[in-house]
Amino acid sequence: MRIYKVGGAVRDRLLGKPVTDIDWVVVGATTEEMLAKGYRPVGADFPVFLHPKSGEEYALARTERKSGRGYGGFTFHASPEVTLEEDLIRRDLTINAMAEDDQQNLTDPYHGQRDLEARILRHVSPAFAEDPLRVLRVARFAARYCGMGFTVAPETLELMRQLSQSGELQALTAERSWKEISRALMEDQPQVFIEVLRECGALKVLMPEVDALFGVPQPEAHHPEIDTGVHTLSVLEQAALHKQPLTVRWACLLHDLGKGLTPEEEWPRHIAHEHTGLKLIKAVNERFKAPKDCQELALLVGQYHTHGHRALELKPSTLLELLQSFDVYRRPQRFEEFIAACEMDARGRKGLEQRSYPQADYLRGAAIAARSVAVQPLLEKGFKGPELGEAIKRERLKTLKAYKEAASA
Ligand code: CTP
């Protein structure tokens, strides 16, 4: 039995990047031998084991056949006869298809090191097509490594284009897709993920609602970049620059979907896009089974982002409705994320990236003011049930009126 370090751990060591998880491949072993050595099987029908102590993944060298159930929807052919080269050739990218023994001797039959130096994301072989998730993976690696100068090889982009057209992307499970999407959004340049997906036609399949934003104009006075798709990418870019969490990044990506539905004769205006977009946001949320906090924030940002921008002009009663919609009393953090998404939306405009956003502090102050209304004195006055609710609302409104006056004084 021979054991090699493979995949991301080898790639990232050669790139001089920190290595977090290590994957291992085991050549010349059987399942029985692994079990006898104390490795724990990850599942019943696929040849991946966890090390008894480190918990790292050890996979038997394998060739893969397309259909089936097993690990992520594959059946595997693993046997002690499968060589290291046979295992590596069915991996996604040349830079991920290198192996290293315990002396750090590199096995690199598909020239991963050459591609690392040339900064190219290139598929290893036609076996790339066995797993359509790789279209998303390549886009994610492009987002991660573009800062180092990496680009996708034209022949790989072409293969990704064919896979996108073949209808195979639709067969991906929501869970696998979301894992890639969420990781890609957390990269330093998540907009590159969307750009690469768009370039190979995958965006049209995965998120046609986002794809439809490209070519849709907005008024130049507010949006010097004009194109709604370009704006969306800039908002995402700003969200990453400002180290926003996943919830905010997801909301940024989806905030303007309604603009894709505006009839052309109304361009460049997008009346009520906040409302028309909601069903699209809901559809994308559900398609990828996004976590609840991402879903909720995306819908709220979609519906209320223009309120955020107009915060200083809002009537106290509208301000109160906004705060109530966010349940800011029990969920202050969610309102903070809304403010962040609005700010990213304001900064994601060509030439306006550095513009200040006084709305943010104003909204924060309004939330503090509304939350400062104490319930106890109202209880003491004998209010209860729906009357108590009304009394609290009146007090909050009074407080917000005073807040607005003080702010504009
Ligand atoms: N792999 C693959 N196709 C996939 C998933 C994984 O070929 N759909 C192979 C690649 O060789 C990859 C290795 O399995 O390098 C380990 O996969 P994973 O841990 O998912 O990714 P890493 O490459 O380690 O990258 P990351 O740093 O993003 O975790």
The biggest sheet amounts to:
7 strands, mixed
Number of helices: 20
- The averaged pLDDT comes out at 94
Q: Uncertain regions: pLDDT < 50 for 5+ in a row?
A: none
What CATH architecture of the largest domain would you give? Answer: Orthogonal Bundle
Strand segment tally: 11
- Measured by DSSP, the beta-strand proportion falls in 5-15%
Strand numbers in spatial order across the main sheet: 3-4-5-2-1-8-9
> Do you know the CATH topology of the largest domain?
Hypothetical protein af1432
Family: Belongs to the tRNA nucleotidyltransferase/poly(A) polymerase family. Bacterial CCA-adding enzyme type 1 subfamily.
Subunit structure: Monomer. Can also form homodimers and oligomers.
Protein name: Multifunctional CCA protein
Cofactor: Mg(2+); Ni(2+)
Keywords:
single chain, 409 residues, alpha+beta, Beta Polymerase, domain 2, Hydrophobic Seed Protein, Hypothetical protein af1432, 4 domains, 7-stranded mixed β-sheet, two-stranded antiparallel ribbon, 20 helices, elongated, binds cytidine-5'-triphosphate
SSE layout and pairing:
Layout: E1 2-6, H1 8-15, E2 23-27, H2 31-36, E3 40-41, E4 48-50, E5 57-60, E6 62-65, E7 75-78, H3 84-89, E8 99-100, E9 106-107, H4 112-118, E10 120-121, H5 133-145, E11 151-152, H6 154-165, H7 174-185, H8 190-199, H9 202-206, H10 208-211, H11 228-241, H12 246-254, H13 273-276, H14 278-287, H15 292-309, H16 316-325, H17 332-347, H18 358-371, H19 376-380, H20 385-408
Parallel strand pairs: 2-5, 10-11
Antiparallel strand pairs: 1-2, 1-8, 3-4, 4-5, 6-7, 8-9
The protein binds cytidine-5'-triphosphate.
Cofactor: Mg(2+); Ni(2+)
Catalytic activity: a tRNA with a 3' CCA end + 2 CTP + ATP = a tRNA with a 3' CCACCA end + 3 diphosphate; a tRNA precursor + 2 CTP + ATP = a tRNA with a 3' CCA end + 3 diphosphate
InterPro entries: CCA_bact, HD/PDEase_dom, HD_domain, NT_sf, PolA_pol_head_dom, PolyA_RNA-bd, tRNA_CCA-adding_enzyme
